[in-house]
Amino acid sequence: MGAGLSRWGQGMIQVENLRKSFGGFHAVDGANLRIEEGTITALIGPNGAGKTTLFNVIAGVLKPSSGRVYMDGEDITGLPPHTLFGKGLLRTFQIAHEFSSMTVRENLMMVPGGQTGETLWRTWIDRRRIASEERALARKADEVLEFLTIDHLADERAGNLSGGQKKLLELGRTMMVDARIVFLDEVGAGVNRTLLNTIGDAIIRLNKERGYTFCVIEHDMDFIARLCDPVIVMAEGHVLAEGTIEEIKKNEQVIEAYLGTGLKNKKTA
């Protein structure tokens, strides 16, 4: 399937001729793609293909040099992350960010914005309301932790978690707000196989039971094969191909640009 074409029609996220340059280097160079609502879409490609830069532009971390990004037909190009957060577009990072000295439960309770206790003067006159909000947030946090099967870590300091547990905590943060689409950057990095399977289970459940849409950057092809359809391949800043994992594995351009001769030899073995 050619670059910029989609089997899914108009997507929840649509990227049109997107470019992001750093000096004379074109990290994203005319990328066109769609992410359809309700899918778990993989974004793969060699190091330097522009995947993370593309994520950062879509999520408002970086402003594009040119091109447009649309969400449900609305132009969201260049909107800051907190505005996109309010629209349900969330982006997680390769290295999980947590408040290390706070408990896992407290980390989750920090996520929702607009809490009464965030305003100094209200801490004096609305103590009862603040206490009620905190109880509700604690209940929701505990439900999230149970969903992710890490409720036994609720009172553990987040800084003590393993890499995989931190990734689950970061996924949990998306559940504390009304997330619609979540961009996951190398969720499997530094995570053992058991925890990676747990993370995969959680992503599938969030997709099927709660309607989350995901776009996942990942190098683990077994993980991609289990979770993702479609798979989008980037190379040299643009979209090279799109299709199912089986179609991608058979695509000669992809084999040459990304997967290498090892896969080709494996196919004919």
TrEMBL record:
<dbReference type="Pfam" id="PF12399">
    <property type="entry name" value="BCA_ABC_TP_C"/>
</dbReference>
<keyword id="KW-0067">ATP-binding</keyword>
<feature type="domain" description="ABC transporter">
    <location>
        <begin position="13"/>
        <end position="261"/>
    </location>
</feature>
<keyword id="KW-0813">Transport</keyword>
<dbReference type="GO" id="GO:0005886">
    <property type="term" value="C:plasma membrane"/>
</dbReference>
<dbReference type="GO" id="GO:0005524">
    <property type="term" value="F:ATP binding"/>
</dbReference>
<dbReference type="GO" id="GO:0016887">
    <property type="term" value="F:ATP hydrolysis activity"/>
</dbReference>
<dbReference type="Pfam" id="PF00005">
    <property type="entry name" value="ABC_tran"/>
</dbReference>
<dbReference type="InterPro" id="IPR017871">
    <property type="entry name" value="ABC_transporter-like_CS"/>
</dbReference>
<dbReference type="InterPro" id="IPR003593">
    <property type="entry name" value="AAA+_ATPase"/>
</dbReference>
<dbReference type="InterPro" id="IPR003439">
    <property type="entry name" value="ABC_transporter-like_ATP-bd"/>
</dbReference>
<keyword id="KW-0547">Nucleotide-binding</keyword>
<protein>
    <submittedName>
        <fullName>ABC transporter ATP-binding protein</fullName>
    </submittedName>
</protein>
<dbReference type="InterPro" id="IPR032823">
    <property type="entry name" value="BCA_ABC_TP_C"/>
</dbReference>
<dbReference type="InterPro" id="IPR027417">
    <property type="entry name" value="P-loop_NTPase"/>
</dbReference>
<dbReference type="InterPro" id="IPR051120">
    <property type="entry name" value="ABC_AA/LPS_Transport"/>
</dbReference>
